[in-house]
Amino acid sequence: MSERKSGKSDLSDERWALIEPVITAWKAKHPSANSHEGNYEMREIVNAVLCQSRAGCQWDYLPHDLPLAGAVKYYFYKWRDEGTDQTLHELLRCSVRERAGRLEDPSLVVLDTRSGLAAVIVPAATTGRDAAKEVPGRKRALAVDVLGLVIAVAVLAANAQENEAGTALLDEAAVRAPSVVKALVDQGLDQKVVHHGRGLGVDVEIVERNPQDVGFVPQPIRWGVEQAFGNLMLHRRIVRDYESRLASSVSRVYWAETDRMTRRLTGTTATSWHTPADLADLDLGESVQTAA
């Protein structure tokens, strides 16, 4: 395959070095049936997945110099169904925690949910309307550690009860990080989740809002999950849910976190949606000036 000009979301050599062992090991276990290894390098397949994650484009709108959409979809779905995306995420998460001077797995997690819009192509059977937040679509739930690293992900219809999301996260966290013994949740969850956590050996604490607080006031420790949701919004494919299957929505979160953690481990930053030139077009009233 001929060399192409590097894109903004492409993996650097240092970032690819963190991912390559997992992908290479997977590839070794999945040889081609006809001994033909294909026309695409695995690094380019991952680049295409990350490009779509950041740009939010449809499969067929991937840049023409990346692998064909059919090839990228094949690997994305295979890695999703076999848990390769989660294996990669777990290894990177452990590396980030170790670099921060912490044990591989946390003892405390913070749980929260966000409801967001779903595209019209998303099956109605997996969507609903969040009555409290008046948002139609799906509900994304995260369990994160004190560093804001994702431990568990759950995606449900937006009309699912908060307790359903909370119990799903606790079950997932218990599998992925058996060391967890404490979970902080907000007032949207009740004693049902507390009792469920007790059965898993997790002390669930409902953190109540200070009645004297006015407006938005970040809560210590729990603020990490707010940051995690904010970081995901840098990936346009996640801003609105375009995935037909809930498993694909979960996989998108793991790939977004993989992107973020490889940057964190290599000291590189992500490009903002807005360039300095874009911001220069804004006046003090934040109105866009039209060029003559």
Low-confidence stretches: 282-292
Strand content: 5-15%
Number of distinct helices: 10
Principal-axis shape: globular
Q: What is the string of SSEs from the N terminus onward?
A: HHHHEEEEHEHEHHHH
Q: Largest sheet at a glance? A: 6 strands, mixed
Measured between the Cα atoms of the first and last residue, the distance is 43 Å
- For this structure, the CATH topology of one domain is Nucleotidyltransferase, domain 5
- Average residue-wise pLDDT: 88
Number of strands: 6
Report the CATH superfamily of one domain: Ribonuclease H-like superfamily/Ribonuclease H
What is the annotated CATH architecture of one domain? Answer: 2-Layer Sandwich
Structural class: alpha/beta
CATH class of one domain: Alpha Beta
Rg result: 20 Å
Helix content: 40-55%
Structure description:
With 292 residues, the chain is α/β, with parallel strands linked by helices. The protein has a domain at 105-244: 2-Layer Sandwich (Nucleotidyltransferase, domain 5). It is 43% helix and 13% strand. It is built from ten helices and six strands, in the order H-H-H-H-E-E-E-E-H-E-H-E-H-H-H-H. The chain has helices at 13-29, 42-55, 69-82, 84-99, 162-176, 191-199, 223-232, 236-239, 246-266, 276-280; strands spanning 108-116, 128-130, 135-144, 150-157, 182-185, 203-206. Strands 1, 2, 3, 4, 5 and 6 form a six-stranded mixed sheet that branches. A hairpin with a 5-residue loop joins strand 3 (135-144) and strand 4 (150-157). It is globular and about 60 Å long. The termini are far apart. Residues 282-292 have low confidence and may be disordered.
